[in-house]
Amino acid sequence: MGSRPSPGSRTAPPGGDLAQPQRRGAALGVGLVAVFMTVLDVSIVNVAIPSMDRALDVAPSDVQWVLAGYTLTFGLMLVPGGRFGDGHGRRTVFVVGVALFTITSVAAGLAPTAPWLIASRLLQGAAAGLINPQVTGLIQELFPNSERGRPFGLLGAAISISTAVGPLLGGLLIQIGGTEHGWRWVFFVNAPLGVFAAVLGWRLLPHRAQGTPDRHRFDLVGLLLLGGGVLLVLLPLVQQHWQGPARWLTLPAGLLTLAAFAGWERWYARRREPLFDPRLLSIRSYRFGVLIALLYFGGFTAIFFVLTVYLQNGLGHSALAAGLASTPFTVGFAIASVVGGRIVSRVGRPLVALGLATVAVSLVVVVLVVNRVPPGATVSWWTATPLLVAGLGSGLVVTPNQALTLAQVPVSRAGSGAGMLQTGQRIGSAAGIATVGSVIFAAQGATGDWSVAFHHAMLLISGISMLALCLALTDIIRDRR
Q1: 97, CA 20 to 30 Å: which among 390, 433, 457, 466?
Q2: H helix count then E strand count, the chain
Q3: What is the pLDDT of residues 126-138, one digit of tens each?
């Protein structure tokens, strides 16, 4: 399992049509639309919280579940979603996931109460977890290793643009729909995209790849251990209203549960097909890539949360103005994602290290710039340039790291391997938003100054990027030795 596949090896797609570049491109395009839609819902809801509060009178704990609950179930379903795709055909799982995502998006938009909205978001996240591994697995299936740089670059661009454009699109929809009920359009916008992706996905995606595993008994124990462990680790971060040291007792319990999951998977892999094959971790590029993704997404996703909170709650800007402030980051991210996907095969892990260093330094510059904004000046104009540079750096991290992480993963395990990688990203996102959110609100409560709180949060995100940089440098040093 840990051996490197030949560069030109790939599973041949069923039927000759999908071997044609235009058919492969069309299938990839449908997948990218679905990925854009699911990742968009991670960040688009941030600017909608004040509108939800006016319509449903949501409590602070409800807000936490609306934001982090989606990311949590998203992450929990990625690995089993990858396994389902490996064993039962990516097209079927993809279409079912898109249909469920569309239905739950409409249900969230129609929510009359906060519990209804939370339940819809949890199901919506689970559906997103079914979809995303199928797209990464599709790239592994249809493109040989030497040709995967470009499709992974496009995938990274879809992920980065959807994450970064979320606040802007959300602010625009709220502006159009009104401050009280505009948040509903944040969910309704998924309906036409979902119908489009489901119909074309059924027509264009390969029904079943040659060489994928036969159907087998599903690793239910592994799923329960993974889900329980992740939930116990994230629970004290999501439930920030819990007080006292007892709040953190679930953290060691969660770590023990995840250790039990690792032991179970090693034992189960000797007998049947596990939920996640632990032998993938013997591949150094995969092991380091997952850890880098876990850390980096813990800071990256929180950037938009911090900007939104500071500009709306701290400076009184509208949802649209708060969304516009992230546009420079979006532009830089989109450009560098495409470029990074094209050159990663030549540069390798040093490209990721360069991106991480750029992000860490740029966020410190953002803090320094905000400290010098003249009274009455528009903060977003002053932060535009460093955020653009941070976006360029981020684009050199996400896409290249994904390509390097999955480069040596066998095609038959592409879905589950990609699922674990994206699980790390989603867990990092949920933990990062919760941790950075607690820092910014605690600092604001202690000082009464949103500017100070913003500085603390952005410096924390910069520090998280530095930790990911240390991992990337370690991988580079070990590779050269």
Answers
A1: 433
A2: 17, 0
A3: 999 899 888 888 8
Question: 391 is written with which tokens?
Answer: 């976006």
Helix (H) or strand (E) holding 294: helix 284-309
Would you say 91 and 201 are in contact if contact means Cβ atoms under 8 Å apart?
yes
d(CA 377, CA 478): 48
Give the rounded percent of residues in the chain with a pLDDT score beyond 90. 25
Dig out the tokens for 477 from the structure.
């040093």
Structure tokens at 72: 């949590």
H or E segment to which residue 84 belongs: helix 60-88
Q: For residue range 418-445, what is the model confidence (pLDDT) as tens digits?
A: 777 877 888 788 778 778 877 887 787 7
Give me the amino acid identity at 364: V
Question: From CA 445, how far away is CA 68, in angstroms rounded?
Answer: 22
Under 8 Å between Cβ of 172 and 9? no
As a whole number of angstroms, the distance between CA 71 and CA 41 comes to: 9
Cβ-proximal residues to 259 (8 Å cutoff; 6+ apart), any chain: none
312: which 2 tokens? Answer: 């709306």
d(CA 144, CA 163): 28
Most distant CA pair in the chain, distance: 67
Distances (CA, A) of 235 to 187, 241, 247, 430, 469: 25, 11, 9, 10, 27
φ, ψ for residue 239, nearest 5 deg:
-85, 70
pLDDT of residue 9: 41
pTM score over 0.90 = no
467 touches 295 (CB < 8 A): yes
The pLDDT-based confidence of 5 (bands split at 50, 70, 90) is: very low
Task: Give the three-state DSSP class for 351.
Answer: helix
The rounded distance, in Å, linking the Cα atoms of 150 and 162 is: 18
Q: Is the pLDDT of residue 309 over 70?
A: yes
Quote the DSSP letter at residue 312.
Answer: I
Is residue 307 within 8 Å of residue 323, measured between CB atoms? no
The dihedral through the CA atoms of 420, 424, 430, 434 has a sign that is positive
Question: Which residue in the block uniquely carries the two structure tokens 């997948």?
Answer: 31
Task: Determine the Cα–Cα distance for residues 20 and 261; give it in Å rounded to an integer.
Answer: 41
SS3 382: helix
